[in-house]
Amino acid sequence: MQSFFFLLAAALGTSASIARYAPLEINTPVPGAAECEPLLITFSGGSPPYFVAYARVVQTNPILPTPLAKFAPVTGTSLTWIVNATLGSSLILDVKDSTGVIATSAPFTVITGAGDGCINGN
Ligand SMILES: *[C@@H]1O[C@H](CO)[C@@H](O)[C@H](O)[C@H]1NC(C)=O
């Protein structure tokens, strides 16, 4: 009887850990991020809570070391960002989950949106 319960517990534990979470993924904005408009950033899988560590500008020469935006931890699977990046910038979104796994989007571009009024200095 004791071993039956042990096996039952082991089986439940195993299936729970297998079914637990899909791989962490973050969606790439298509066709791009509209300048000064709200962008819904969505991700899936991984272990909540999620920490959107950085949305950063990628330049080839040089790559900017400082993230363009850093968001507070979220427990859901989406957040909204007002795209305060200049037209034509190439960006990548990263999300980090509670276990430290990081998922990265494909590069995307800042496209024409509501103008540049949301960017400092404009
Ligand atoms: C752009 O938006 C992010 C997120 O709201 C903010 O952290 C960042 O400081 C903003 N950058 C500028 C230059 O306003």
**What proportion of the residues is helical, as a percent range?**
10-25%
Low-confidence stretches: 3-17
Average pLDDT rating? 81
Q: What is bound: which ligands?
A: 2-acetamido-2-deoxy-beta-D-glucopyranose
How many runs of DSSP E, i.e. beta strands? 8
Large-scale geometry: elongated
Total helical segments: 1
Succession of helices and strands: HEEEEEEEE
Class computed from helices, strands and strand pairing: alpha+beta
Largest sheet: 5 strands, mixed
What does this structure look like?
With 122 residues, this protein is α+β, with helices and mostly antiparallel strands. Helices cover 14% and strands 32% of the residues. It has one helix and eight strands, in the order αββββββββ. It has one helix at residues 2-18, and strands spanning 25-26, 33-34, 38-44, 50-57, 78-82, 90-97, 102-104, 108-111. The strands form two sheets. Strands 2, 4, 6, 7 and 8 form a five-stranded mixed beta sheet that branches. The chain has a three-stranded antiparallel beta sheet with strand order 1-3-5, with no helix packed on it. The protein is elongated and about 45 Å long. The termini are far apart. Residues 69-70, 81, 84, 120 line the site of 2-acetamido-2-deoxy-beta-D-glucopyranose.
